[in-house]
Amino acid sequence: MTDDWTCGKGLAANAALPEAIGAFFDALAMVLDLHTRSLDLSESSGRAEYDAYEGLVARQRVIASSLAKLGREMAGHVDLPMAEHDMEVLSAPESMAAFRALVDAERALLERLTVTVEEHELMLAE
């Protein structure tokens, strides 16, 4: 493998994000699953909360598994050979807008995570 940048190396470099988001959903599912053990299922509100969480936990675990698989697949393309690219297509307004949307989504995710981590750290400290 050379030190030249390739699209395969780009895929592999970006694999950490779906893996990390998958780990987040796996951890969230565990927290919600454990939370359901605290509920009084003889109360209608306890039963409603349990049912809501149960469905969310199941879907979060599916998402976590899918994201982990996606990350592994992306990382596995590290040695993908470099193909010729049409630079006019890559620099076209549509392509640049799509990349801007990605960066904007990354920034929004970072900002949301920053707030959430601060809130959760306060909860842990209590």
How would you characterize the overall build of this protein?
The chain has 2 domains: 81 residues; 43 residues. 77% of the residues lie in helices and 0% in strands. The protein contains 5 helices and no strands. The longest helix is centred in the C-terminal third of the chain and has 33 residues. The mean pLDDT is 96.
Number of strands: 0
Total domain modules:
2
How much strand content do the residues show?
under 5%
Radius of gyration, in Å, reads: 20 Å
Please write the string of helix (H) and strand (E) elements: HHHHH
Q: Based on helices, strands and strand pairing, what is the structural class?
A: mainly alpha
Helical residue percent?
over 70%
Helix segment tally: 5
Average pLDDT metric? 96
Give the biggest beta sheet: none
Q: Shape from CA axes?
A: elongated
Low-confidence stretches: none
Distance between the amino and carboxyl termini: 50 Å
